[in-house]
Amino acid sequence: MTTPTASSRGTAPSSPQHPSSSGGSPWATGGAVFAGVLMLIYGVLAVLQGVAGIAHDDVYARQGDYVYKFDLTTWGWIHLILGVVVALAGLGILRGNEWARLMGVALAGLAVIANFAWLPYQPVWAIVNIAIGVFVIWALCTDRSRSLV
Hints:
Blueprint: H1 19-22, H2 26-55, H3 72-94, H4 98-117, H5 123-142
Helix pairs in contact: 2-3, 2-5, 3-4, 4-5
């Protein structure tokens, strides 16, 4: 004797991918994957930005009397190192590593702070990066799934 299946009774079977069964919303899960991609792209762009600041100290406009004023070569090294670490964390997030998610939140916070201090040198790009950092923090903190990809 066979028992009726969920589809023959007119109800949809519950899937392990369903938001109510996985504990997270599809927006948050998709946002976490997108956050990993954004971190990877931001990391590569920050490396290029850092190389430009190190190689050619005259690429960015010099600021007069600014509280967070560093030598542009120093800013280049900050962006280069932060970019490499953020890109590696982004790859880890895309692979579904829990450590990468936690590191991603911390690194996105550091990137927001660095871009705030970088505002006078490239204001529009710094504001865009701050907004991206805030989104990355939100997406990684609200995702409840174990596997991102």
